[in-house]
């Protein structure tokens, strides 16, 4: 016997995972022509983008915020998590920026 997982008294397998996709399709049908549908926020980063989802707006969770993704034909069969990066990109600065005070007086090596 396996333990049944519930969230807010909803069964995970039948209700929670299906609700997001059905809600997405309903909002897409209700959207007026030439207007984008409402954004559906989801934590399902492992969900594969299907052809029926083209034209929808999805908010993929990155661990901190929901990043808006407009579903277009080029991203079919990708995972939603691919468009919401979970880490901050690192940019290394020049010598002396953000380091100790003494490193300000070290001259950087100039390429000849």
UniProtKB/TrEMBL annotation:
GO terms for biological process: ribosomal small subunit assembly; translation. Gene3D superfamilies: 30s Ribosomal Protein S19, Chain A. One of its GO terms (cellular component) is cytosolic small ribosomal subunit. Transmembrane segments: none annotated. InterPro entries: Ribosomal_uS19, Ribosomal_uS19_SF. Pfam families: Ribosomal_S19. GO terms for molecular function: structural constituent of ribosome. Keywords: Ribonucleoprotein, Ribosomal protein. Belongs to the universal ribosomal protein uS19 family. PANTHER family: RIBOSOMAL PROTEIN S19P FAMILY MEMBER (PTHR11880), SMALL RIBOSOMAL SUBUNIT PROTEIN US19 (PTHR11880:SF2). This is 40S ribosomal protein S15. It comes from Cavia porcellus (Guinea pig).
